[in-house]
């Protein structure tokens, strides 16, 4: 009696493994590109939120002329009153932090926020928390900039 064994040959198995390896390499590169694009979109979204917050606070300052500015929901935002900083949220937490109405510095928010009094506040996604992947707010003039080269 001769038994006919059915199965795959060693060459067939090796070909399947090689093909799966090639597909995995393409999938990994597409995945890393998608992750990078998501980080860039997140940074641009925070930058848009910062710009909107500054515009709302400036508008409210023009209407009321008071410092701090009291927003519709009774949140108060510290603003500058002289020159280019007139109506611009100044300071970190009491200024742009209140204007954003979302504390991105809370652990688990996915952001690392570095507030520098009288200077620049940076908003970086975590991980990787790279200096070249951030939205930055300058409280002396209200400018918002983004750096997405290292995302």
Could you please describe the fold and organization of this structure?
With 151 residues, the protein is of the alpha+beta class. It has one domain (11-147). It has two helices and six strands, in the order H-E-E-H-E-E-E-E. The strands form two sheets. Strands 3-4-5-6 form a four-stranded antiparallel sheet, with helices on one face. A hairpin with a 5-residue loop joins strand 5 (134-138) and strand 6. The longest helix is centred in the first third of the chain and has 55 residues, at 10-64. The radius of gyration is 26 Å and the shape is rod-shaped.
What gyration radius follows from the Cα positions, in whole Å? 26 Å
Helix content: 40-55%
Question: What's the tally of helices?
Answer: 2
Q: Give the strand order of the largest sheet, numbering strands 1, 2, ... along the chain.
A: 3-4-5-6
Strand fraction equals 15-25%
**Oligomer classification:** single chain
The CA-CA distance between the termini, in Å, is 66 Å
Order of helices and strands: HEEHEEEE
Outline of this structure?
The chain has 151 residues and is of the alpha+beta class.
Topology readout:
Layout: H1 10-64, E1 69-70, E2 76-77, H2 92-100, E3 111-114, E4 120-125, E5 134-138, E6 144-147
Antiparallel strand pairs: 1-2, 3-4, 4-5, 5-6
Q: Keyphrases for this structure?
A:
151 residues, alpha+beta, 2 helices, 42% helix
């Amino acid at each position: 009696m001769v038994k006919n064994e059915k199965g795959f040959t060693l060459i067939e198995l090796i070909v399947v493994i090689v093909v799966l390896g090639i597909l995995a390499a393409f999938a990994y590169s597409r995945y890393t590109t998608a992750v990078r694009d998501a980080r860039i979109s997140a940074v641009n979204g925070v930058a848009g939120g910062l710009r909107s917050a500054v515009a709302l606070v400036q508008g409210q300052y023009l209407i009321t002329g008071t410092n701090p500015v009291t927003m519709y929901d009774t949140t108060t935002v510290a603003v500058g009153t002289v020159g280019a900083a007139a109506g611009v949220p100044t300071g970190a937490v009491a200024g742009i932090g209140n204007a954003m109405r979302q504390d991105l510095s809370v652990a688990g928010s996915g952001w690392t926020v570095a507030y520098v009094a009288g200077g620049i506040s940076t908003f970086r996604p975590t991980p990787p928390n790279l200096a070249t992947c951030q939205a930055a707010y300058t409280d002396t003039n209200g400018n918002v900039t983004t750096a997405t080269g290292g995302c």
